[in-house]
Design brief:
The chain is mostly beta strands and about 130 residues long. Helix content is about 0%, strand content about 50%.
Length: about 130
């Protein structure tokens, strides 16, 4: 059974850091574009960051310079390191995989991703 599993969420204070992990069974993440999206209560899902198979990374403006997406191919895991967390970062964070090539201009389009994890809650208190 192929699945994605996110972990690492939690309750933190503003200014703290967290590292989210996305691990996979049944597929090798290094072969795909992997992205993080998030959804806050009452809001639409939004793109956070992505890493292509080539290693190119992409970030939403709201998290640039605070979040870093990376891969550990030996662990078949993609990480999202989050620093200087803000209350507005509070959301459920999902990892997603695009199994075919995706153009850079479309990398933020969640509808194009094929597989999703169940999400992990990140709550940042002020």
């Amino acid at each position: 059974q192929r699945q994605l599993v996110e972990s690492g969420g939690g309750l933190v204070q503003a200014g703290d850091s967290l590292r989210l992990s996305c691990s996979a069974s049944g597929r090798t993440l290094s072969a795909y574009t992997v992205a993080w999206f998030r959804q806050a209560p009452g809001k639409e899902r939004e793109f956070v960051a992505a890493v292509k198979r080539s290693g190119e990374t992409y970030y939403a403006d709201s998290v640039k310079d605070r979040f870093t997406i990376s891969r550990d191919n030996s662990k078949n895991t993609v990480f999202l390191q989050m620093h200087s967390l803000k209350p507005e970062d509070t959301a459920v964070y999902y990892c997603a995989v695009k199994s075919l090539l995706i153009a850079s201009a479309q990398i933020m389009a969640g509808r194009l991703y094929d597989y999703w994890g169940q999400g992990t809650q990140v709550t940042v208190s002020s």
